[in-house]
Predict the structure.
Amino acid sequence: MSADFPDSSFWRLSVAPMMGWTDRHCRFFHRLLTRRTLLYTEMVTTGALIHGNAAQHLRFSEEEHPVALQLGGSDPADLAICAKLGAERGYDEINLNCGCPSERVLKGAFGACLMGEAQLVADGVKAMVDAVDIPVTVKHRIGIDKIESYDFVRDFVGTVSEAGCKVFLVHARNAWLQGLSPKENREIPPLRYDLVYQLKRDFPDLVIVANGGIKTNAQIAEHLTQLDGAMIGREAYHNPWLMTAWDEAFYGEAAPDVPLTHEAVELAMIDYMERAAAEDGAPWYSIASHMLGLRHGLHGARKWRQVWSDHRLKPLPAREVWAMAQAHVGLHDLADAIPL
């Protein structure tokens, strides 16, 4: 890798791009929990950037770094334009979606169906690499439909890597392009991490990251004995407190002098909600939806979530809703909530 290319540790841990979930508000929340973990945007199509409101689609907070932009598209010229837009906006990486199996992406000629067109992907990667000075990466599956041979994913990675892609984020399941919903595609095709491990053995100079079914820090640690990184998806969203251990456990950073608390994170999100409302009118409830997993497994969590998701409270200011939610979590002295 060139001197200006990030070390492989840049991809040690990441939160997967998830449509409808990992928007800028969600990423701000996740950044309160981990300083080092790489965060990904939702997939943004090249058409939305070229023909829509690019500034709105590309917006993010400076606090989110490191943050990567995931693109959906297949036309090399369009990908180059959009990669350049992302780099100019300040993203740290441009990622190409070759893993999403929904019918929408199939009709749009992007996502997992592109695994069947490795040279087209390589052409798109080459166009983006030529257009930007930040890493261009690819997220993909291990196969599509009934193609379960390791040779298929090996040849895909080989072809695309020759175009300049040095980082592959591998969802260790096949994608069924027809017959399964996106949700079923995350659950029914079996996980085959052994194929991801084999990719690392066959391409030792590439950065290979495993994605799919990773739910615990023990699983992360196990993958890191074989690979360069682990990408966590829905577990990071539903059980976000898991991320608070990552900087120390997987990056070797010293534990903070003042331990992070749920109350401190929640108060920081209240401040952010008020800031977002003042800046662009973002309603607090569209932001609060991303932090409903904050108290996962704790006493009073269900009642706390019910308050934050009660549509009848939408007219109230966020801080009033927060005060109502506290009644269910045993926070008796609000002065003990340490500001971030």
In short: The first strand starts at residue 13 and ends at 15. Residues 331-340 have pLDDT under 50 and may be disordered. The domain at 262-336 is CATH 1.20.120 (Four Helix Bundle (Hemerythrin (Met), subunit A)). The chain has two domains: 8-251, 262-336.
